[in-house]
Amino acid sequence: MPAAGSGADGSGAGDGAPRGQLSSRVADTLLASRESWTRRMFELAAQLRAAQPLPVYDLSLGNPSLEPPPVWRNAVLELLSHEPEGMHRYMTNAGFAEVREFLAAREGKRYGVAFELADVTMTVGAAGGLNVLAQAMLDPGDEVVVPAPYFSEYEHYCATVGARLVPAATGPAFSLDAEAIAAAIGPRTRWVLLDSPNNPTGAVYDHGELDALAAVLRRANDGRARPIVVVEDAPYRDLVYDGGEVPSMLTRYADTVFVTSHSKDLGLAGERIGYLALSPTMFGRDTLQRALAYCTRILGFVNAPALMQRVLPRVLADPGGRVDVAVYARNCRRMAAELRHLGFVLPEPRAGFFLFPQLPERLRDEHGGDVAVTERLVAERTIVVPGTAFGTPGYLRLSMAVDEATVDGAIAAFERALG
User: Fold this and answer.
1) Domains of the chain (ranges plus CATH)?
2) Is residue 2 predicted with pLDDT exceeding 50?
3) What percent helix, strand, coil does the chain show, rounded to 5?
């Protein structure tokens, strides 16, 4: 597999390579090969396709294979046919008031929380929302506790503001372990960052787990000048199989910020539309509302895409405004059954489109572990991401947001490489 990329001017990554024009912060990441494993593997798939016109079975990136529902296209065409005056101009940094009001009411009804318009900030996807929130809230040296495995970009979001990600162990089947989080909390803990349904594991944190976490945080807040904030990153909440639900900390902990996007449930990853909502009960709510608009501006986002903001209420108000999660469920369950046959260990898929299987026992002590297995699969033109990228060596992450032919090809490749 390629190392972190090197440039023609010699300023790329690699031990001892010159920093060239890079900042120390970015150079330290690149030179240590800590840039996104997922993106590197996605780019490797493109290189394999370009080098030889044979199929590549790319399970690297969570890039939705399902097209947006028809209601989205219809809403876009209708808006462009009858454009409101000024639709494509700047608006307030937090977004169009009528869109935020719609989302405040929608989320309020869903969770039984009295959101107001000012609690909602439109964002450039969930990633944009997390970065805006980090800029507004985190100081250098602050700590963010996160259950492991965790979405690998979290580490980089923290690094951009000088904060530190602190992993906490999870329980059986990647369940939330409140006591492990309690042990990870220190004097500089500012956030507990949750991702449910989880990327990479697909785990959904249940009511009991969240109740236990809320109790831990209330104890940890005793004597603090400002409470620890729970940040819920929930772009997969509407991709739950068999009508399951995704409980929220919004209903049990006062200082919660909810962040989501429609990259996954509407198949709009490239359109970058999301939002965050502040719990009406959180400490410092009024000043944080203002800070989020300010940070949206100074980070260069300025505002979330205007057309996508306008389209969103029309799509979300329609019962057909969602991709067919049954396709992802079918892919995940089929691949999970094959992986178990090969000796991998993983819980039954419940949500999203990722699998995070533990290597078969016979491969766990192999030199390089998950990275070595990843390389064996590359030789079969099958691209996965090693668990090392998610803070948990000895596992693989597979994105099953792919077509049926890719599932077929990947299963055959696993059998050749590991069977």
Assistant:
1) 36-66+324-418 (3.90.1150.10), 70-316 (3.40.640.10)
2) no
3) 45, 15, 45
Q: pLDDT tens for residues 156-181?
A: 999 999 999 999 999 999 999 999 99
What are the CA-CA distances from residue 79 to residues 76, 275, 312 (Å)? Answer: 5, 21, 11
Under 8 Å between Cβ of 196 and 230: no
Distance CA(207)–CA(252), nearest Å, equals 10
Is the alpha carbon torsion for 55, 57, 61, 65 positive or negative? positive
CB 410 within 8 A of CB 335: yes
Instruction: Give the whole-angstrom CA distance, residue 335 versus residue 357.
Output: 10
Angle among Cα 142, 247, 177 to the nearest 5 degrees reads 55
Write out pLDDT tens, residues 70-96.
999 999 999 999 988 888 999 999 999
Would the pTM count as exceeding 0.85? yes
CB-based contacts of 271, cutoff 8 Å, min separation 6: 262, 263, 305, 308
If one counts every other C-beta atom within 10 angstroms of the C-beta of residue 252, the result is 17
Q: Phi then psi for 120, rounded to 5 degrees?
A: -105, 130
